[in-house]
């Protein structure tokens, strides 16, 4: 399912997918395209960067659905450390 909020926010800033990708330190626009088309979700750290660049709330952009692997790794480390 397309992420219409992310697309609208990017277009509101007059940015192309490629321009936004470069601002995030990505080599090409493929990651941004995948996030917008619903093929993948960004890691939490990138989602925060996107929210800052696009000046939108992260919840608005992603409905609090970001890539789980980073969150799961962080919580697993906490459990191991306890």
UniProtKB/TrEMBL annotation:
Q: Which UniProt keywords apply?
A: DNA-binding
Q: Does the keyword Flavoprotein apply?
A: no
Please provide an example of a Pfam family that matches this protein in its UniProt record.
Answer: HTH_3
Q: SUPFAM superfamilies attached here?
A: lambda repressor-like DNA-binding domains (SSF47413)
What InterPro entries has UniProt attached to this entry? Answer: Cro/C1-type_HTH, Lambda_DNA-bd_dom_sf
Coiled-coil residues: none
Q: Which PROSITE patterns match?
A: HTH_CROC1
Domain (HTH cro/C1-type): residue spans on this chain: 6-61
Protein name (database record): Helix-turn-helix transcriptional regulator
